[in-house]
């Protein structure tokens, strides 16, 4: 009895390589968002041509959410109709500081660039207990919208003061349960899944993961993307997961990586959630007597500058934080115009291919 050989799935990474554009551009074109992100028609045509040539087929997306109906903002918080220019509040709750933050500084800059000609008012230094009074303050009197940054998933009770105020708002990089609010997320699942495909296409099957068990969307997405990709290939091994590394520093990564490789010498590749720890990871690999990439391939997510300064340069995926800020403002403009908006806007990351991956030794 013979079985049909399944054709390998064509990935967006392959289409990006064939068309000479970034993986982010491919994702935007194939999901019908070329105009929204101002991608030139010739570029879009090039992507579609490469996709058809490679035999790419769109997969149906699961768990699609219904658009959020938004009534026209005729009065809002300021009592004035939207005329094309508005004041937007950006609120940081339970935030330790914006300057130099690897995630939210780029998002804030992207938001400000997209909002050129509008007034942006940043507010911070408050906890959730201070939000009810803030929402009634004069500082918000002329704001027609609010973009919310926070370090954890808020509860419906946390968000109740904003809901009660009637001011439209957008939640950044958080995906809470029990409340329907527009939120902007990056595609953590797709980033992890894509990196696993990148490694498995090179022949790797024993891929260790250094991540976190936190419940934030970026952590959940990366864990699930890693697991689903390896399960689909029949090579998932829970013994190769470390999900307690969120607070580690370079010395702890160095010791943890060395201990893993000494315990499991069959590992041929390593995936980390945090590429800012690359120096500790690399040193741990070398302490275990391995070379990168000849003896062990290493990939990560983040796109931090340090990942491009090591030898060999790390293969990583950049968090699209700048693009998320831009997307948040575009959503707010649609709300101001009275258009319905999606509950979740998910932005793909960008693959930064380095020299840290190779085929495993026979």
Description:
- This protein has 362 residues and is an alpha/beta fold.
- It has three domains: 9-58, Orthogonal Bundle (434 Repressor (Amino-terminal Domain)), CATH 1.10.260; 87-185 and 321-345, Response regulator (Rossmann fold, 3-Layer(aba) Sandwich); 188-319, Rossmann fold (3-Layer(aba) Sandwich), CATH 3.40.50.2300.
- The chain has helices at 12-19, 23-30, 41-54, 104-114, 131-135, 156-165, 188-200, 217-232, 250-263, 278-287, 321-336, and strands spanning 87-93, 119-126, 143-150, 169-172, 183-186, 207-210, 241-242, 269-272, 297-302, 315-318, 344-347, 350-352.
- The strands form two sheets. Strands 2-1-3-4-5-11 form a six-stranded parallel beta sheet, covered by helices on one side.
- Helix 4 packs across helix 11 (321-336), helix 7 (188-200) packs parallel to helix 8 and helix 9 (250-263) runs parallel beside helix 10.
- The longest helix has 16 residues, at 217-232.
- It is globular and about 65 Å long.
- Mean pLDDT is 85; it is low at 60-65 and 70-81.
Radius of gyration: 22 Å
Arithmetic mean of pLDDT: 85
User: Which structural class best describes the helix and strand composition?
Assistant: alpha/beta
Shape: globular
β-strand percent reads 15-25%
Oligomer: single chain
The CATH topology label of the largest domain is Rossmann fold
**CATH architectural group of the largest domain:** 3-Layer(aba) Sandwich
Q: What is the number of independent domains? A: 3
Number of helices: 11
User: What is the CATH class designation of the largest domain?
Assistant: Alpha Beta
Q: What is the H level of CATH, i.e. the homologous superfamily of the largest domain?
A: Response regulator
Helix content, binned percent: 25-40%
């Amino acid at each position: 009895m013979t079985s049909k050989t399944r054709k390998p799935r064509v990935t967006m990474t392959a289409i990006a390589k064939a068309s000479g554009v970034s993986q982010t551009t491919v994702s935007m074109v194939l999901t019908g968002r070329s105009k929204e992100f101002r991608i030139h028609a010739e570029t879009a045509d090039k992507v579609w041509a490469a996709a058809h040539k490679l035999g790419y087929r769109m997969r149906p997306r699961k768990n699609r959410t219904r658009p959020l109906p938004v009534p026209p903002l005729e009065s809002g918080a300021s009592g004035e109709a939207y005329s094309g220019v508005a004041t937007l509040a950006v609120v940081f709750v339970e935030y330790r500081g914006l300057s130099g933050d690897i995630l939210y500084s780029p998002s804030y800059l992207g938001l400000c660039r997209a909002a050129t000609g509008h007034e942006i008012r940043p507010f911070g230094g408050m906890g959730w207990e201070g939000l009810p009074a803030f929402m009634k303050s004069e500082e918000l009197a002329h704001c027609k919208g609010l973009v919310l940054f926070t370090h954890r998933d808020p509860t419906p009770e946390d968000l109740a003061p904003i809901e009660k105020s009637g001011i439209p708002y957008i939640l950044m990089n958080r995906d809470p349960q029990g409340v329907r609010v527009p939120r902007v997320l990056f595609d953590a699942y797709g980033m992890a899944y894509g990196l696993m495909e990148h490694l498995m296409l090179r022949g790797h099957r024993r891929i260790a993961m250094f991540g976190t068990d936190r419940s934030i969307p970026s952590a959940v997405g990366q864990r699930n993307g890693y697991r689903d990709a390896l399960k689909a290939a029949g090579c998932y091994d829970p013994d190769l997961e470390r999900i307690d590394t969120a607070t580690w520093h370079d010395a702890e990564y160095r010791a943890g990586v060395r201990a893993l490789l000494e315990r499991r010498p069959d590992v041929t590749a390593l995936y980390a959630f945090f590429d800012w720890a690359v120096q500790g990871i690399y040193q741990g690999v070398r302490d275990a007597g391995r070379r990168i990439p000849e003896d062990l391939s290493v990939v990560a997510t983040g796109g931090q500058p340090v990942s491009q300064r090591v030898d060999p340069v790390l293969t990583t995926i950049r968090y699209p934080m700048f693009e998320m800020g831009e997307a948040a403002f575009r959503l707010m403009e649609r709300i101001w115009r009275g258009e319905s908006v999606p509950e979740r806007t998910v932005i793909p990351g960008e693959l930064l291919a380095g020299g840290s991956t190779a085929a495993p030794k026979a």
